[in-house]
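=== RUN LOG ===
request id: a7f3
mode: sequence -> structure
chains: 1
length: 264
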Amino acid sequence: MRVRLIMLMVIVIFLGGYQAPPVSSRDASDPPSESVSSSDSVEEEQLTLGQLRQKYADTFKTNGPSTKQVALTFDDVPDPRFTPQVLDLLKKYKVRATFFIVGSRAEKHPDLVKRIVKEGHIVGNHSYNHPEFSKLSMNAFRKQILHTGDIIRHLAGYTPKMIRPPYGDINEEQLKWAARQHYSIVNWNVDSLDWKGLPKEKVKDNILSAVKPGSIILQHAGGGVGSNLNGTIEALPEIIEELRNRGYELVTLDEMLGLPKAKE
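=== RESULT ===
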């Protein structure tokens, strides 16, 4: 009898009369099994730049207070093709701006960095050789900042407090380090897109159509091989005049954001 019962069960299983419950049948609300290893857990979701700005608002800035001030900022300097022309125009119109220095370029053109500072402008750290920060190890990221800070200190007399990441790109671990080291990350909220080699009228429209109280305006006074920033240089006088006609005061970032220019 017992043998027959066993044989009957085998036949039922073979013919598909029995199905094991699917692996996914556990309710989503059930606690995970203790047997799940840490390597199977889902990695923490990376925050977007917008989420990082909210989470680290004291360290990560893209605009100033809603007052009738705007800040002109120029990246990728120094560059002997474009930086002197921008400086000449700012001097003519008595405007002080903020320049973000690339360390490798500062080593090649130290006199231009000295001129920027001598003429009353503020400088910030824009990395040593313009990498995408989020793709760097923490050690490589720190070297980019610290080495460039040393170069700028030698030329400008101070280590900048402000860092502008190339492409505006940074991750949370890097932000945490910057905060611990008393740096400020400063991006922008008005983009001229001048790096595309745009003509004067397009650069001008990109800025003036988007500007509002507290805007940080991104332009370039340096670029790579074959860069054409004539649009920025030609548009700059009219941009300055129109901003002033609208009642804006043109200030440096340390003035707008209430930050010291030098790292503590």
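=== NOTES ===
Residues 5-43 have pLDDT under 50 and may be disordered.
The CA atoms of residues 161 and 261 lie 6 Å apart.
=== END ===
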